[in-house]
Q: What sequence folds into this?
C-alpha cells in the first residue's frame, strides 16, 4: 500500500488528510480536481533501490496482524535433558516474561519485624527527653505481630493530642508488646520539635584513619629447665649449704692474714690442678673398684672359700686340722727377692705389708715394700722400691699409713702411704746414727711425751736404738748396747772391752711398756727395760743357734715364745729360767706367731716349706697341723702372720711369694661350752687356760 | 695419671675381660678398647641405667651411695663403677662368667 500512497502524494496534489488519501488509494484515474497539480509535477515514482518487488496480486494480498502477549525474544525451543528418559526433551512451556525494568525498593512493611524495630529506634531517640508519657510495659504477648503499628501511631500522635494518645495508649496497653531484647520500660518521651522550623544540622568530623602501631621486643631467651626433686637431691643441697657455712666459719676463725693467704694459695693451687688434670684421673677410684670386681670374678671360688668354707672333714680328723690354701700374692719385680717381713695393717684388716729383700750375705740386691689387699690378689696396692733390701717392717697402730722399715745396710726409714712418692718420707743416714749392721727388727712405740712418733730398732751391731721423729727429722737415741756378759776381756790399759752381741729379734711387752725381750745371735734372750741402758733384767740361755724370733703371748703377760735355727721352738715363762715347752721341728724354724683368738694356739714355719700349728690345750707335745705349704721343695718359708679377725694366715717364702691359708675349724677351737654354763670369752679366760697348762708343767718340773 | 693407665691396662689384660670403657659425666666415652658403634651404644645405655640406679639408692637413703653395678646376663657380665664423688663417671668392662 505504501508505495501507492507515496505515489499519490508525489503527484503534487496538496495533501489532503491521510484518510482521504487512503480513500483514494483505489482511484487511479486522473481527477479533475487533481488536474491542477498534474502539470506542476511530473508523475515520478521514486522507489528506494531496495524496495521489494511484488506483483499486483501480491500487493493486494491481505495480511492479518494479531497482537499477542508473547515475548518475541523468548526462546521457543528450549530443550532440557531428561534423566528419566535419557534424552533431550523440549520444554513445553517457555517463560514469556520480559523484564523491562527492575528497581529494588527499600520500603518495608510497617508490621514486619524490621519495620517495628526501626520504628522503635526512631522513637527511642526522639523520646529520650520527655517523660510524661509512659507506655507501661505489658506482658509480652505471644504473638508479635500486628501491634507495632498501633503502638507507633499513638506515639506519633502524641505531639498532636495527648488525650487521644492516652486513650489509644490505654487501649493499646494490653496489646503493647515488648520488644524482643529491649528493657521493659519504654521511653515514650519524644522530643518536641518544631516540624516547620526545626532544623537539624549535623556535621561529621573527619574520622582519622586508624593505624596499627606495633612494637615487638626481642623475646627473652628461653631455656628449658627440668629437674627432679629426689630425696637425695634435697639432702645434697642441705649438705652443700652446711659445708659452705662451715667453711665460712673456718675462714672467720683463722686469724691473721698469713693464714688467709695460705688458704688462698692452696685454693688457687687446687683449682689450677683441677683444671689441668685430665678427665682420666677422676677415674682412679672407679678403676680400682672395677679391678677388684674383675678379680672377684676371677677368684670367685677362692673368695667364697675364704668366707664360707669350713672343712667338714675336721670332725673326723680327731683334733687335727688343715690349712686350706687360698690366694697367692706375687709381684713380677719381687720374684727373686725373699719375703723378709710380713705385717698386717692394724686398722684395715685386709691390708698387709710385705717386705722384700735378701737373706743371703753375698747376694745383696735392691728391696721392695709392697702392700696387698685381700680384695685384689693380682696386684699390690702400694709399691715402694729401694736400693737396699728391706729386712723388717712395722705399721703404726694409730697411724696406719706410717710404715717403719729397717734396711740391710743398717738404715731405717719411714714410709708414708698417703703420699704417692716412692721414696720414704724420712730416712736415717750414717750421720744420724744408723746401724752398722742389718736391722733385724723395728717396732713402733707409743708417742713420747712431746707427741712425737718413735720406734725402736735392733741390729746385729748390738745396739738397740730408739728413733724419734722430731720436726721432720729422725733422731736416734741409743737405748741399750748388747754386751755379751762374761766376755769382758781386759785390755792392755785396763780397759774393759766388751764383746758386743748381735741382736736378731726383739719384742715389746703388750702391757708393761718398758719391758722387752731381745734375742741374739748367740742364742741368748735378754729381758731388758727401756730405762736401764747398761744392764739386763734377765738373761735366758735359750738356744744353741741364733734366735730368729721372740714374741710375747697376746693374753698371758708372763709367757713368751722363741724360735731358732736350731730347729726348736720354746715357750717360756719370763720368771722361770727354763722353758715350759720345747718343740723340735726337724728343720730350722723361720718364724713363729701367736694366734690372736686364743692364748694357746700358735704357728711356726720351717725352712723345709712346712707350716706347723699347735694348740696347747689339745695337744701339748705335738702339732695339730703339720702341712707343707709351699709348692717347690727348695722354697723356704720365712715368715708367718695371723690375721686379726679372719681365720687366715699369711706365709712368706724366699721366692717372693706370699700365700694365704685358711685355718680349718679344728685349729680354731674355742673352749667347749658346758651345758648350762655361760661361755666366757675374753682375755681372762685365755689367761686362765694357759695358766692351767703352765701349772701342770711347772708341777711336773718342780 | 700413669697409675690409672696402668690399672686400666691390667684390667684389660685380665683373664676373661673383653673390653673396657671410660665414660665422662655427660655420658661421652673418653677411652675405649671396643669398636665405635659398640662403645657408643654401651655408653648411652649404661649411663642412663647407672644414673637411675644411683638415684634409686640415694633416694632410699641419701647418705648412701652407689658403689658399683653388676649386670649378669647369660653371655656376659657388665660391671660399672661410678665415680664416688659427685662427679659421676662410668666405667665398664665385661667378662664372661
A:
Amino acid at each position: 500500500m505504501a508505495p501507492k500512497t507515496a505515489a499519490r502524494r508525489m503527484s503534487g496534489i496538496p495533501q489532503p488528510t491521510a484518510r482521504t488519501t487512503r480513500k483514494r488509494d483505489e482511484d487511479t484515474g486522473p481527477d479533475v480536481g487533481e488536474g491542477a497539480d498534474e502539470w506542476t509535477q511530473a508523475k515520478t515514482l521514486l522507489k528506494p533501490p531496495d524496495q521489494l518487488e511484488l506483483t499486483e496480486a501480491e500487493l493486494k494480498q491481505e495480511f492479518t496482524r494479531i497482537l499477542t502477549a508473547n515475548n518475541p525474544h523468548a526462546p521457543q525451543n528450549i530443550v532440557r535433558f531428561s534423566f528419566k528418559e535419557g534424552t533431550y526433551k523440549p520444554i513445553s512451556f517457555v517463560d514469556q516474561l520480559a523484564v523491562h525494568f527492575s528497581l529494588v525498593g527499600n520500603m518495608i512493611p510497617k508490621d514486619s519485624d524490621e519495620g517495628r524495630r526501626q520504628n522503635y529506634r526512631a522513637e527511642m531517640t526522639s523520646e529520650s527527653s520527655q517523660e510524661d508519657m509512659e507506655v507501661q510495659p505489658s506482658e509480652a504477648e505471644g504473638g508479635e505481630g500486628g501491634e507495632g503499628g498501633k503502638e507507633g501511631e499513638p506515639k506519633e500522635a502524641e505531639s498532636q493530642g495527648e488525650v487521644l494518645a492516652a486513650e489509644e495508649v490505654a487501649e493499646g496497653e494490653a496489646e503493647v508488646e515488648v520488644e524482643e531484647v529491649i528493657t521493659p520500660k519504654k521511653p515514650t518521651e519524644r522530643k518536641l520539635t518544631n516540624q516547620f522550623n526545626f532544623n537539624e544540622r549535623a556535621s561529621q568530623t573527619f574520622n582519622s584513619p586508624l593505624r596499627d602501631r606495633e612494637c615487638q621486643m626481642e623475646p627473652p631467651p628461653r631455656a628449658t629447665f627440668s629437674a627432679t626433686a629426689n630425696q637425695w637431691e634435697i639432702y645434697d643441697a642441705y649438705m652443700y649449704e652446711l659445708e659452705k657455712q662451715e667453711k665460712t666459719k673456718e675462714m672467720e676463725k683463722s686469724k691473721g692474714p698469713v693464714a688467709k693467704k695460705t688458704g688462698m694459695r692452696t685454693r688457687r693451687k687446687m683449682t689450677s690442678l683441677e683444671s689441668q688434670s685430665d678427665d682420666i684421673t677422676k677415674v682412679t677410684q672407679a678403676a680400682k673398684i672395677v679391678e677388684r670386681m674383675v678379680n672377684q670374678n676371677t677368684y670367685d671360688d677362692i673368695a667364697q672359700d675364704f668366707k664360707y668354707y669350713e672343712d667338714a672333714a675336721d670332725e673326723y680328723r680327731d683334733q687335727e686340722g688343715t690349712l686350706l690354701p687360698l690366694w697367692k700374692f706375687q709381684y713380677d719385680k719381687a720374684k727373686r727377692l725373699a719375703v723378709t717381713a710380713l705385717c698386717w695393717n692394724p686398722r684395715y684388716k685386709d691390708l698387709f705389708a710385705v717386705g722384700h729383700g735378701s737373706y743371703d750375705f753375698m747376694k745383696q740386691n735392691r728391696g721392695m715394700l709392697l702392700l696387698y689387699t685381700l680384695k685384689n690378689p693380682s696386684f699390690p696396692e702400694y709399691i715402694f722400691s729401694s736400693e737396699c733390701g728391706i729386712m723388717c717392717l712395722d705399721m703404726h697402730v694409730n697411724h696406719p699409713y706410717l710404715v717403719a722399715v729397717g734396711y740391710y745396710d743398717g738404715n731405717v726409714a719411714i714410709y708414708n702411704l698417703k703420699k704417692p712418692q716412692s721414696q720414704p718420707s724420712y730416712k736415717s743416714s750414717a750421720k744420724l746414727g744408723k746401724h752398722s749392721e742389718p736391722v733385724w727388727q723395728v717396732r713402733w712405740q707409743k708417742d713420747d711425751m712431746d707427741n712425737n712418733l718413735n720406734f725402736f730398732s735392733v741390729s746385729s751391731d748390738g745396739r738397740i736404738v730408739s728413733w724419734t721423729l722430731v720436726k721432720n727429722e729422725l733422731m736416734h737415741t741409743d737405748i741399750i748396747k748388747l754386751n755379751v756378759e762374761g766376755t769382758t776381756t781386759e785390755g792392755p790399759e785396763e780397759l774393759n772391752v766388751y764383746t758386743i752381741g748381735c741382736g736378731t729379734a726383739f719384742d715389746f711387752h703388750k702391757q708393761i711398756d718398758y719391758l722387752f725381750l731381745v734375742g741374739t745371735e748367740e742364742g741368748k734372750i735378754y729381758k731388758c727395760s727401756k730405762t736401764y741402758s747398761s744392764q739386763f733384767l734377765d738373761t735366758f740361755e735359750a738356744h744353741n743357734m741364733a734366735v730368729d724370733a721372740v714374741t710375747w703371748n697376746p693374753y698371758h703377760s708372763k709367757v713368751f715364745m722363741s724360735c731358732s735355727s736350731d730347729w726348736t721352738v720354746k715357750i717360756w715363762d719370763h720368771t722361770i729360767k727354763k722353758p715350759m715347752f720345747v718343740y723340735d721341728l726337724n728343720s730350722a724354724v723361720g718364724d713363729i706367731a701367736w694366734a690372736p683368738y686364743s692364748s694357746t694356739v700358735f704357728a711356726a714355719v720351717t725352712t723345709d716349706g712346712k707350716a706347723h700349728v699347735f694348740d696347747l690345750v689339745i695337744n701339748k707335745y705335738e702339732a695339730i697341723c703339720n702341712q707343707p705349704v709351699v709348692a717347690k721343695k727348695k722354697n723356704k718359708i720365712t715368715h708367718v702372720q695371723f690375721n686379726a679377725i679372719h681365720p687366715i694366715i699369711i706365709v712368706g717364702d724366699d721366692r717372693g711369694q706370699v700365700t694365704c691359708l685358711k685355718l680349718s675349724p679344728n685349729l680354731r677351737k674355742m673352749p667347749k661350752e658346758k651345758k648350762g654354763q655361760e661361755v666366757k670369752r675374753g682375755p681372762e679366760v685365755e689367761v686362765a687356760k694357759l695358766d692351767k697348762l703352765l701349772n701342770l708343767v711347772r708341777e711336773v718340773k718342780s | 695419671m700413669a697409675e690409672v693407665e696402668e690399672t686400666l691396662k691390667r684390667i684389660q689384660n685380665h683373664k676373661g675381660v673383653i673390653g673396657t670403657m671410660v665414660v665422662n659425666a655427660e655420658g661421652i666415652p673418653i677411652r675405649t678398647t671396643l669398636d665405635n658403634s659398640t662403645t657408643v651404644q654401651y655408653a648411652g645405655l649404661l649411663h642412663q641405667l647407672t644414673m637411675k640406679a644411683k638415684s634409686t639408692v640415694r633416694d632410699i637413703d641419701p647418705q648412701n651411695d652407689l658403689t658399683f653395678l653388676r649386670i649378669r646376663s647369660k653371655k656376659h657380665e657388665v660391671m660399672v663403677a661410678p665415680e664416688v664423688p659427685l662427679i659421676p663417671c662410668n666405667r665398664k668392662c665385661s667378662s664372661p662368667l
Notes: The interface with chain A takes residues 1, 3-5, 7-8, 10-11, 14-17, 20, 22, 24, 30-31, 55, 58-60, 62-63, 67-68, 70, 77, 79, 81-87, 89-91, 93, 95, 97 of chain B (CB under 8 Å). Residues 85-97 of chain B have pLDDT under 50 and may be disordered. The two ends of chain B are 31 Å apart (CA to CA). The first strand of chain B starts at residue 19 and ends at 23.
